[in-house]
Design brief:
The protein is α+β, with helices and mostly antiparallel strands. It contains 13 helices and 49 strands.
């Protein structure tokens, strides 16, 4: 009996020792100042060295300090993504970690420091090394200044509620003989060491605390509420302080769920049914959540919404209220579920979480909403039935979001570090491709291997620091087939996959064919046999490096299709089928669609859109735009707009055809071959015809797709045929042809912009060399300075007029590039339209042109909001005339940059501009009505 007692005592002591020293422990006492948004923190960190190395420096994550200035990596990322709110924020709206003091268990102070490379961690210099299986205790005191939630949705809001995330100091994970050190770049990918937490927090009585830690005790004292909380095996925890409670607790069979995800139209009972269903599905598909409680916040969803669903206006409801809530909750729930339980290095290996999350969502939809379409009930409207956008299944949208980036040649490998992903990839496309890839593997293995592997991986690794290799090992061990290609090609590369049929031979009893691998990357592909649209057979084939011939029984099929169900994330589905009847095996029927649609691989889509344009000479121009540009980019596009001009009572229009070629493995990533033309009036009684064959070559940093520097080489031949006009003198310049070559180099972000352009123009009568540079800088006080330098010279000039000369204030636009509304006007309202080009002056000066050379500098400085002062200076030379110096200045009302601006001249080479009664004629304006250009303002932050 004594022996048994000793064994039991030893076991208890061992378990107690393992709990005390098996991992790190953090004990915090926090006092909340809700008015100053400051947390006063006393903390004791017990660090247990679980590595084989001796550690002399301890690294602590301090991500809250990323909000401290406009020079942090977080601030640079905001600027890079064209978000100016942080740069212009008040000092009290930013966060920081202040007054840090650290002592060891002997009450001796420890030195700590930040470095410039990774400033969002602190390095604590220990007095002596901590050996393997040894521990050290640090005692810390510091103040946490909580940032406003307007930057990242974490922090305090206008009602002084606080959603706290990554706010405290905690040990970084130690792996492969070093600490993992990352900066906070608003990516939700902090890599903390797994720790136990004890938190005692004191908040004003008017606040309630919601957290996924376990409540040990609470009491009320002198107008404050005190909460004692605890948690084990945690990577992080949520902490929400609210003046008015917004969370509801739902008890499911698996765990307690606290959430404040909003939907005012559903009852608590309806939400309870949805949450019960999702929690049960996650438990079955993934595995048991390791904690008793999970907190899902509206912030969790808003930081990672279901894109598409979140973009719909509130008055458009193609989905039922229950389905919309279900999708929103499931997206946020699975994200938190996986992040809290699988300690993956989210910066480098986020695809593991993403793949499991999106795959689980797709399987959930297949099981519970298999008939739901991408746009829900919109598919039931008769007017929308012809749209592929409304007919595709809900799960098919994942493929289109991925293909949007692949066709732009902006997709990136799934193993790309998260901080190097283009924003659209980081938020949407890469996540979706990860889920699609796992579904592809699941379909290929034709069994429950993937689901079994997910459960095994989760069960074995929940609460542990793990790497992607753990997931790969489980998949490989459970797979009956070699799947090394899946990781080398699908996960670790951005190799485009594109198959098509070749050499199809049909008989009454059989069909044989070869498969052409257009990109050279070999992965398995399914082949379907169809009869009248129904699937007769499906076979997986493993193509070889050299074309092989495959033969199947005919089974009376009338069509064979590769990748019919889009299981394989393939670059192009339009070349995937062959008809086995008729003489034209790929003769797709033409389908006319109004406005816009998704690409439909089984039709030749022609989209039509009524258009309305205007210029002074044609009047209102009513047209019908016909094009094949669906949401996904295509190798070949056409876009023509035949029009009727109401004022001239003649036909007009414009259009182009283009061939788009992507190069996926080089700095030269895109070539675009275009032939365009336009036909309009340039004067009340005369038209122009412009023909423009061109080549664009786009260059980028192949190693950093996030780099905002863009380079472009542009070559074109501008052919212009102008009718002679009795109203506007043409100076015998009617028909001409100009070769034009340009090089652009630009780098733009919200705080600064720099661009450089050099240009050559050449024709039989003249040639020009031009250089243009521009610079813009946004200061912290919201003031902005901008400069533009333009310099041009004729290499030779045999013209007899100023039609091709450099313009001081209003270019003649002899290549018809600018959107003039009255291009031949020299007086009146339309002559006051301003195009910032060539000299770029705003005042009408005595000299309007330069036929030898010109140098001009345009500058501006903002003095209050959208009110700026501007100034232009120039030096120019005309034949048989001395050099001339010109200047002007005035006020710029920069209402919407490049779209709506007003220039009020004040003083120039003419003297005071408002000295005469006709000052209103001196005012210049910029106005643009082109929606496509306007939309670029919103697209740039994504791509």
């Amino acid at each position: 009996m004594k022996v048994y007692s000793k064994v039991a005592l030893f076991t208890l002591l061992y378990l107690y020792s393992a709990k005390q020293y098996g991992q790190h422990h953090s004990k915090m006492t926090v006092e909340v100042n809700s008015y100053a948004h400051v947390l006063n923190v006393d903390q004791e960190i017990t660090y247990f060295n679980q590595s084989p190395d001796s550690i002399s420096t301890l690294v602590l994550n301090d991500w809250n300090n990323a909000y401290s200035s406009i020079k942090t990596p977080l601030a640079r990322r905001f600027s890079d993504e064209f978000y100016r709110g942080f740069h212009l924020a008040k000092e009290e709206e930013r966060g920081s970690t202040q007054n840090i003091s650290i002592i060891d268990q002997n009450e001796l102070p420890l030195a700590w420091e930040r470095n410039t490379i990774v400033p969002d961690v602190i390095h604590v210099r220990l007095r002596k090394k901590v050996g393997p299986n040894q521990k050290i205790v640090l005692r810390l005191h510091y103040l946490v200044k909580v940032p406003s939630d307007m930057f990242t949705k974490y922090g305090y809001d206008s009602n002084d509620n606080m959603v706290l995330k990554n706010w405290f100091l905690t040990p970084a994970r130690y792996e492969n003989h070093d600490f993992i050190k990352y900066n906070n770049e608003n990516l939700d990918d902090i890599v903390n060491a797994v720790s136990d937490f004890d938190l005692s927090i004191k908040v004003p009585k008017k606040y309630t605390v919601t957290t996924d830690l376990d409540l040990v005790a609470s009491d009320e004292n002198y107008g404050f509420n005190n909460y004692n909380l605890t948690g084990t095996n945690r990577i992080d925890f949520s902490l929400i302080l609210e003046r008015k409670p917004s969370f509801t607790t739902f008890k499911t069979k698996e765990l307690d769920v606290e959430t404040n995800i909003t939907d005012s139209k559903l009852t608590k009972e309806q939400k309870a049914l949805i949450i019960e269903c999702i929690a049960h599905y996650a438990n079955t598909m993934i595995g048991k959540y390791p904690f008793d409680k999970i907190v899902i916040t509206q912030t969790d969803y808003e930081r990672s919404p279901f894109y598409g669903l979140n973009q719909l206006p509130s008055f458009i409801s193609p989905f039922s209220d229950t389905f919309a809530y279900e999708i929103k909750f499931m997206k946020a729930f699975l994200n938190v579920y996986l992040k809290n339980s699988l300690a993956v290095d989210e910066r480098k290996e986020a695809w593991v979480h993403d793949a499991i999350q999106i795959y689980t969502m797709m399987k959930y939809i297949e099981s519970n909403h298999s008939d739901t379409k991408m746009l829900g009930s919109a598919a039931n409207y008769k007017l929308l039935k012809s749209y592929n956008l409304t007919n595709i299944d809900f799960n098919e949208q994942y493929s289109y979001f991925y293909m949007l980036m692949a066709r732009k040649n902006l997709d990136q490998p799934l193993n790309t570090s998260k901080d190097r992903l283009v924003k659209f990839n980081e938020q949407i496309a890469s996540k979706y491709r990860a889920g699609l890839s796992l579904r592809y593997l699941d379909n290929y293995l034709e069994s429950t291997v993937v689901e079994k592997s997910i459960r095994e991986f989760y069960s074995n690794n929940s609460g542990k620091a793990i790497a992607r290799e753990n997931f790969e090992a489980v998949l490989k061990s459970n797979s009956p087939k070699d799947i090394n290609w899946f990781f080398s090609t699908i996960i670790n590369s951005r190799k485009a996959i594109d198959y098509k049929f070749s050499k199809v031979i049909k008989t009454k009893d059989s069909v044989s064919f070869s498969i052409k691998n257009k990109t050279g990357f070999i992965v398995p592909v399914p082949v379907y046999g169809l009869k009248n649209g129904d699937i007769v057979f499906k076979k997986w084939i493993d193509p070889q490096a050299h074309d092989s011939v495959y033969q199947f029984e005919r089974q009376d099929i009338d069509k064979i299709v590769l990748n019919y169900k889009n299981e394989l994330p393939e670059y192009n589905l339009r070349n995937n089928w062959k008809s086995l009847k008729g003489f034209f095996p790929n003769n797709r029927p033409v389908k006319f669609v109004f406005m816009k649609d998704l690409e439909d691989p089984y039709y030749n889509q022609v989209l039509y859109v009524p258009t309305v344009e205007y210029n002074l000479y044609d009047g209102l121009i009513f047209g019908m735009r016909l094009h094949n540009k669906t949401i996904l980019e295509k190798p070949f596009t056409f876009d023509v707009t035949p029009s009727f001009s109401t004022k001239s009572q003649t036909m007009s229009g414009s259009g182009f055809v283009a061939v788009n070629q992507n190069f996926r493995e080089s700095a030269l990533y895109n070539a675009r071959y275009v032939f365009s033309g336009s036909y309009f009036h340039y004067a009340p009684d005369a038209t122009y015809l412009k023909l423009n064959p061109s080549l664009q070559l786009r260059i980028r940093n192949q190693n950093d797709f996030r780099d905002n520097r863009k380079e472009l080489l542009y070559f074109r031949q501008v052919i212009v045929n102008r009718e002679a006009s009795a109203i506007v003198p043409t100076n015998f310049v009617e028909n001409y042809s100009i070769f034009n070559a340009k090089y652009f180099n630009t780098k733009t972000e919200v705080t600064k912009h720099f661009s450089f352009m050099t240009e050559l123009q050449a024709s039989n009568k003249f040639s020009k060399a031009i250089v243009e540079m521009s610079y813009r800088k946004l200061f912290e006080d919201n003031r902005q300075v901008n400069f533009r330098l333009y310099a041009g010279a004729f290499l030779h000039n045999k013209t007899n007029s100023d039609y091709f000369s450099f313009s001081v204030d209003r270019p003649t636009d002899y290549m018809f590039d600018y959107n003039y509304y009255g291009r031949s006007e020299d007086k009146g309202f339309f002559s006051q339209q301003l195009i910032i080009a060539e000299g770029g002056f705003k005042s009408r000066l005595g000299t309007n042109f330069a036929n030898e050379w010109i140098t001009a500098i345009n500058g501006g400085y903002s003095i209050w909001n959208w009110v700026e002062v501007y100034g232009d200076v120039g030096y120019l030379k005309n034949k048989n005339a001395p050099d001339q110096f010109l200047f002007d200045s005035g006020i710029r009302l920069n209402l919407v940059t490049d779209y709506f601006e007003v220039y009020l001249p004040v003083y120039s080479s003419n003297g005071w501009e408002f000295r005469d009664n006709n000052y209103n004629e001196r005012i210049r304006f910029i106005i643009t009505f082109t929606p496509k250009i306007f939309l670029n303002l919103f697209n740039r932050k994504w791509f």
